[in-house]
Amino acid sequence: MQPAVDLARAGLPSRMRRMPQRRAAPWLVTAAVFVALLALLPLAFIMWIAVQTGWETVSALVFRPRVGELLVNTTLLVLLTVPIGIVLSVALAWLTERSDLPGARLWAWLCVAPLAIPAFVHSYAWVTMVPGLHGLWAGVLVSVIAYFPFLYLPISAALRRLDPALEDAAAALGLGPWRVFWRVVLPQLRLAICGGSLLVGLHLLAEYGLYVFIRFDTFTTAIVDQFQSTFNGPAANMLAGVLVTCCFVLLGLEVLVRGEERYARVGSGAARYQQRTNLGRATMPSLALLVVTTLLALGVPFVTIGRWLIAGGAEVWRLDEIGLALGQTLFLSLAGALLATAAAMPMAWISIRAPGPLQRLLEGCNYIVGSLPGVVIALALVTITVRIALPLYQTLFTILVAYALMFLPRALVSLRASIAQAPVELERAASSLGRRPLNALWSTTIRLSAPGAAAGMALVALGIMNELTATQMLAPNGTRTLAMAFWSYSGEIDYASAAPYAFIMVAMSLPLTWLLYVQSKRMAGR
């Protein structure tokens, strides 16, 4: 019987066999600790500024009517935008994934496409079309149409993976379609809804350009205004501290709402597609919902950009300025993506090859910085360089470090997935043949994880290309990215000259958005 047992063990997948715990190389641990400490720098600096300022000054800066007004504005924005986005995204995901809606695949892509349009371009399009649009409800409208794809993507992916046997069992017990949805389907979407809601909420706290256009004050707009007008370090940093507190409140709420229920089942479930529901008389209203959503989220930006391009004519295509902005944007995006990917590599390797308490602590530090708004990171780096390392103020080094910190989680997630698919035996074989640890790592794991690293770099590059606040505060003199040029012309009410930059940013973002849509389909085996 022993040979049979050995044969059975050999047939088990490698993840099912007990493998000896591998210790991480000291240089990898050192690199991961350094990156984690650097990631905590903005948060630690805000706390240090609060201690240095003193409680009396801090209380005077925090507990004042202006902060209360900003807190009310930000709270109302989140409380109104997130529920509306959830309802809209669940409805659109169900229509495109579970109903016999005509052209469901096309509508599914159109529901993801708004991600290709930066939020401040959405706001620019709406303000130029409806000049009187401003205030809270304007912010809610533009925020919903700009950010609902962050909810739609995980919800639609979750709907594809649900086991239809559970719904069939509920229907067999006499529950109608609506009761099956509320009691069986919706509870299984909780994780997707919580994750998407957290992502939308963090974007609402961090967004700047969108709310400046519609003249709606939030903590981010106030921090940038405070910095640009008076360079008041303590006041701006205390506002940043309140904003960071709001971020942690959102993180805590997401954990509480998510709960600890089990969402997985033993076994792979039924190997069949869910039967699509016949809409019948609801077909036309459903199509109307999708048409209206598409017109608001895609039609308004594209029509507005096209109208201003036509109105401006050939004169707005200043090829020398556009070429310079495009070149600087591509350079900063590529350099920032390379730095973020290189910084994430040690942590990604440790999380897969040598997991443990230290790994979980270091990885948590990297994800914390991803929840901080870019303006907080930029403000911390500005104050540090001005007070401690003035020669680094507004240099290429500082702006690239800011990009690496802001988008580190994007690179880390992609690298983790790709390293997990690289066999550890190859790395061990290279080491046993006499190669040094770094050479063995480079020749095996890093090369095999190159596709995942490239995907992570693309996601980071997209974020850098559309980033505005940190670039404005940290970029060297003379820097003019596509986003900065767009913001400069739109701030001068020269919407025609801003249109080419908006068009180029959207055109560069569309392929990556399509890649995200295709990848979400592949994850569900479609």
TrEMBL record:
TM segment ranges: 24-50, 70-94, 106-127, 133-153, 189-214, 234-257, 287-310, 330-352, 364-390, 396-419, 498-518
UniProt entry tagged with the keyword Transport: yes
Annotated compartments: Cell inner membrane; Cell membrane
Gene Ontology process terms (BP): transmembrane transport
Keyword Manganese: no
Keywords on record: Cell inner membrane, Cell membrane, Membrane, Transmembrane, Transmembrane helix, Transport
Annotated SUPFAM superfamilies: MetI-like (SSF161098)
A Pfam family recorded for this sequence: BPD_transp_1
Domain of life: Bacteria
One GO cellular component, as annotated: plasma membrane
InterPro entries per the UniProt record, alphabetical: MetI-like, MetI-like_sf
Topological relation to the membrane, as annotated: Multi-pass membrane protein
Domain ABC transmembrane type-1 residue range list: 71-257, 326-516
Family, per entry: Belongs to the binding-protein-dependent transport system permease family.
Matching PANTHER family: FE(3+)-TRANSPORT SYSTEM PERMEASE PROTEIN FBPB 2, INNER MEMBRANE ABC TRANSPORTER PERMEASE PROTEIN YDCV
Protein's name in the database: Iron ABC transporter permease
Species the sequence originates in: Rhizobium loti (Mesorhizobium loti)
